[in-house]
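User: My advisor, Dr. K., asked me to get a structural model of this assembly before our group meeting. I'm new to this, so sorry if the format is off. These are the inputs:
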Amino acid sequence: MSMLTKTGDASSRGGAGESSTAPLLEVRDLHVEFHTRDGVAKAVNGVTYDVSAGETLAVLGESGSGKSVTAQAIMGILDMPPGKISQGEILFRGRDMLRMSGEERRKIRGQKIAMIFQDALSALNPVLSVGYQLGEMFRVHQGASRKEAKAKAIELMDRVRIPAARQRVGDFPHQFSGGMRQRIMIAMALALEPDLIIADEPTTALDVTVQAQVMELLAELQNEYQMGLILITHDLGVVADVADKIAVMYAGRIVETAPVQDIYRRPAHPYTKGLLESIPRLDRKGQELYAIKGLPPNLLHIPPGCAFNPRCPRAQDVCRADVPPLHPVTEQDGTELPGRGSACHFWKETLDA
Amino acid sequence: MPDQIEKTTPDPVGAAGAITDAAVTGAATAAPKREKARSLGSDAWYDLRRNPVFVISALLILFLVVVSIWPGLFSSTSPNDCDITKSRHTAESGHPFGYNLQGCDVYARTVYGARASVTVGVCVTVGVALLGGILGGLAGFFGGWWDSILSRITDIFFGIPILLGGLVFLSVINSRSIWVVMGFMIALAWPQISRIARGSVISAKQQDYVQAARALGAGTGRIMLRHILPNAVAPVIVVATIALGTFVSLEATLSFLGVGLEAPTVSWGMDISTAAVQYRNAPHMLLYPAGALSITVLAFIMLGDAVRDALDPKLR
Amino acid sequence: MGRYVIRRLLQMVPVFLGTTFLIFIMVYALGDPVLAFFGDRTPDDATLAAKRHELGLDKPMWEQYVTYMGNVFTGDFGTAFNGQKVTELMGHAFPITIRLTLVAITIEIVFGVGLGLLAGLRRGRIADSSTLIFTLIVISIPTFVTGYLLQYFLAVEWKVIDPAVSADANFSELIVPGFVLAGVSLAYVTRLTRTSIVENLRADYLRTAVAKGLPRRRVITVHLLRNSLIPVVTHLGTDLGLLMGGALVTERIFNIQGVGFQLWNGVLRQNSQTVVGFVTILVLIFLLANLLVDLLYAVLDPRIRYA
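Assistant: The format is fine. Below is the predicted structure of the whole assembly, which you can bring to the meeting.
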């Protein structure tokens, strides 16, 4: 699977309907705030990204960077209030979902866009059998009978390689191991063969060995069904194997976008660079491990200018005053680097450092 | 509110709650970091001061306490200074609530009745919280046969519905002072608190920080006082405060049934009981003490609500 | 499950014996049942002693208790003050009180769960605040006050019902007393349901249910209610036992000749046999209700498995 050919083309925007070149999902200038007792927390501040069919977008960021909130906004499961989408559009196949009726959105959920949650134990209903919860998808969206739904649930469980599916279909979530539970979550998301899957840290709660298995399964199924996948994670290691392109988020903004290989070779934002350098590597054994100094910003009081400036080794006065836009990243000679962007005033210097 | 998740609220549910907390951080990625860490106590106090329910109930209770300590300030008539010829008379100058069956001034009796209700409510609550808290806490902390024996004793006392027990026990006691009634109420009401204290001590005991303290070599006494007590005491306070109102109500019910307080103590429950015989002709005899009793219970229940909201934000 | 039930039933035995012994001591040690036999007459000491001996009251307390319990297990609860068998009184009283309790529980379920669901789903809005205020008021007004107020308005002022319930105590006559009996508990059920709904609304699996594209009605009935009602059902179970004891007050106000009424008479006439007999049965019901609650828990929540 070639990485670059599948990269979404940012120039082909617009409400072109279901044309094959249009991205499956486009998020445009999304702003989300939370109104809390201590003030307004600006969780997402102008996020723009897109995913096409068969493509995997990895959204990378620390907790509090707004990556999950963006996903919840897409899914329509944001808690409102206290959350509020103050600005922006979310286009699914060219139509703004934020303007759809509740019923229209509901029909998209599960059927067209599905979500995999981080912690399957709490995301699955503890008092209903997994077979019931899987079959529910068919019963609600396709009007299947109880019997049909159960048969399809068993089929799904087989599909995600749960051993003895027929015997275990009546078991409850707590009776499965962590990895198996996550497979059930994946099965549930896959049930109606949606166009897009959003996976919110799907492997964070799992053991490392199980992590790889689950990621492999997810990538394989995505490839088979040619689904778009938004993979939300804070783990750079997970990203490298499965993603086509990456969006790095910080304090509710995208600070860098790039095809997956490029970002590892030549990051164009000091934050990305810091993240990469803080991965332990065998070839640098014996050296001190790099750590980004400071803490993620308080979303109630995001620093003026570039939100990363208090922690940035490159910060100048301009970083404390002006918010950097997402600059298109090019070579020194002006050769365009497709799909690349960096929200840093000093992206050139960072790229070549 | 997303900021609740960031709080270091001790989790009475224990380990299961910890998993959920970790899971919701996804939703709470937007949650702001607190400016400064607040302790549960100061946070609760902050919540309380801003809660109108608390302010209203606290003022009401303050007023009730003043009335019960210095009833003479509010009524110059003695509650037991009765004139049978005025039996069931309605309001007249100087006697705004009229007279009851025995010709006693209803206003004075309503004022003087506050003392019994407030005393019973506060003393029984403190007694129950101490007795139940200590017994339940010890059972939870030491476990083993201690726990088995204490739990069975708790079950035995829990097995007697309190009103039923009141009717049976108190009816055979010939002179019931306020202390006897309160003692009885404590004796039958403590199991509820004991069970809660036991449960919260057990869940606190299993928390990681307690294991950590133990691993660091902290002694039993230190673990009990510094690590478990502060975290187990909140549920006890919550349940005890909510129970306060019901104890006031219970005393009145026992007095109403004729097995609670006795004259010359003035009790709203007793007055309601005597008024009830003739209330169809003279409803005022019933309404004033009943109103005062209801407002008192309401004030304490509201206080309990506010305290629970402040100490256990999960329930809001 | 079967083994668990047996273990629990065995555990209940010492608790049952302990509780009834406690009651036995209180009634027999502090009261003087013998005096009651003579009414207003004051018998001489010799007569008293003879009567005591006849009734076995001169034996040690534990021996009397064992004798009593032995009799109880053969179905002999003794004789009431009017010479009737206590079991005969029970035969009349319990069906009435059970009917009253059923009416009260039904009211609690219908109104308590309904209001709680409404308030929980509309958290922070007017429906929620008014429900909260309503429950506060209901909890604050003691049962006997509510009872007299309802009786005064419905029976005396508006003449909708009869002030006293007839000896038959039909279901229709028991509706108003049922409301009075249910009152405070109804308010607790409402608040418990609301709390539970609000808590579960935040749960991850509810978010999953929404993300699955389920219609709102299904999210609420299948996922939210099913989980939220677990603590409510257990509360109702415990209540079942408490309500039967709580019927004391309600039965007195509406002159219902149920358990509370008989117990009250037993106390007034110092008839120990009646009092201990009725209380023993009530304690047994209370303990069984608590066992039922634990079993229901296991049925409703598959995470709980009893070995």
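One thing worth pointing out at the meeting: Residues 196 and 228 of chain A are 4 Å apart (CA to CA).

User: Perfect, thanks a lot.
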